[in-house]
Please model this.
Amino acid sequence: MASTGRILVINPNSNQDVTDGLSQALEPLRVAGGPAIECVTLTEGPIGVETQEHVEQVTLPLRRLVERSDNADAFVIACYSDPGLHVCREATHKPVFGIQESGILAALARADRFGVVALGQKSIARHLRYIRQMGVEARLAGERPLGLSVAESEHASSFPRILEVAKALRDQDGADVLILGCAGMAGHRPRLEAELKIPVIDPTQAATAQALGAVLLRA
Model:
């Protein structure tokens, strides 16, 4: 059966290992006859989007990539800071999804109060601004930092630290659903959910699932 469209998932950092991890995590959404899901790396990006400077650095390169990808039917910006989301939406009439926005919306559909596992303290400041802009601050149980880089967060060796922070969000902050606050953590979701016994949202999966629905239901 022929594919019904194409979803382009863009990793705004230049770490190909992160892109490969995203692609692996999205495998369950690649279904026969459904839209093709292609993961690409923004080679102009930093090795990890970890500061506001990094966010600003990738914004226009992301827009240019969206503009020249006319054969895509939907786009996912696979960075939890949602860099360039609005300028990319301005650049195309196709749907563009940011993983922080999509991840929060998915979490709100699963439980009352969400917690976020963040990379570092500086990331939290950016995320809280976004949460206030979305008007969902009252539903936030808490956000706690790992103290890891994007590259470190994807390694299996980081799981004990991720689990420690996730348990604190659940047990001390009262979160009944968790969001992984970096695309690099995608591979940890199944094991983390099994350990915690509460829903764990990988925001790239959430955004791509929303993109999948948008492409399948297009007029």
In short: The two ends are 20 Å apart (CA to CA).
